[in-house]
Structure formats: C-alpha cells, structure tokens
Hints:
By secondary structure, this protein is mainly β. The protein has a single domain, classed as Beta-galactosidase, Chain A, domain 5 (Distorted Sandwich), CATH 2.70.98. It has strands at residues 14-16, 37-39, 43-50, 60-68, 74-82, 86-93, 99-102, 108-112, 118-123, 131-136, 146-147, 155-156, 158-166, 169-180, 192-197, 200-208, 211-218. A hairpin with a 2-residue loop joins strand 16 (200-208) and strand 17 (211-218). It is globular.
Amino acid sequence: MGRYGILTQAHNTIMLDGQQQVGVQGIARAPIPAGSWTSEAGYDTAFSSTEFEDLGDATIHTRGVYHDRETGLIAVVDRVTTPLPRQLEAFWHAHPDSNVTMAADGSSAFVRAGNGATLVVARDDSGLEFNSTCLRGQVTPSIQGWYSRIYSEKAPSPVAVFETRVPAGVTTLAWVLRPAQAHQSVQMTRPMIASANATGAWIVVEFAAGHGTRVFVPLA
C-alpha cells in the first residue's frame, strides 16, 4: 500500500494495457517550455506528453487542459498515439467524504460533496464503448481508491473509472469537469469534439437551452 501514491492509477490520468506511465524526475532540471502553457486574463491552458513502461513501442499519451477561471470549468483532451490496439483506463478521484454516482449509460460521474457542492465529470461521445464503475478502498486485484492526508495514514476514497478499447493509430478523447455550488444547477450535455488537428481540439458543451461554451484545448 505504501507505493500507491506514486502509481499512475492513484492520479487523475490514464493507463494503457495496465502499464504505468514512465516516471519523471522529482526535481526540475530546466524550465518548462514556454509554449506548453498559457495564463491569460480569463483562462489557463497546459499540455504535456508521456510514454508507458513495458509496452515496448512508441505509444504516447498527450493531455491538454483548459481551465476557465470564472466558472471553474475544466476541459481535458487525451490523445493516444499507438501502433497497436490498447485497453485504456481513465481515473477521476474524489474526496473521501464525497459520494460518486455513475450515469447508467457510463457517460459521466456525478460527485456530491458533504456541503452540497457538486462536480460533473462527463466524457465525449467518441463512438467507443465504455465500461464505467466507481471503486473505493480496493486492495485486490489492484490497489485503487485510497486517500492519504498525511504520511502513513489512509482512508477509502471514491474513484470513477472509465474503461474502453482504443484502436491502433491516433485516438482523441475529451472530458469536461463542471463544478457547482449547492444552489446551482449542473445540467449540461456531453462534451463534443467539434474539430481536432495536430495542435489541439475545439470542445463544445451546452449547459442549458441556448447556453454553452466552445473552448480550444492545445495539444502541441
């Protein structure tokens, strides 16, 4: 259990064929490339790429993130480039005091905090078939769904897991995380990838009739 915190599945990211992402150095040896992030008046973006241990090929995962400072909305784009089909698992962890409900169609997770605040995690309708579940305090067959406030202390904590099969080539997936206070509605449509190219993807999501947003998430 002691190594759980450094494993890929302990974080809000993805695994391919059950393999860990390649570890990175703990101390920065050079500045982060200026072109990999932006910080504007109303929003922030960032992107980065990684490979995987023991896959034995040039499979790459690139993630781009867009954060709207006013609404708190976060759009995430995952791009997987692989020469072979892969089993993909995406993890979204929640606070141990929250409750997580999965949508019946596997399209989203609904997180409710103790104070009534909510967070919706929704994936795009990519055409891929997903299985989704919520795990908490799992030990076997793999460690999953734990929270540690301080070293040597642990507590079961919910994690929404989305699993699918991605084909060989390039696959682009989108997620939208929308927070709301207890008195606010969190109704929204599933995010849609309006267009995508080598530099990024345009994501569209509607909150209510006639209201929505369209954001660009950079990937290069």
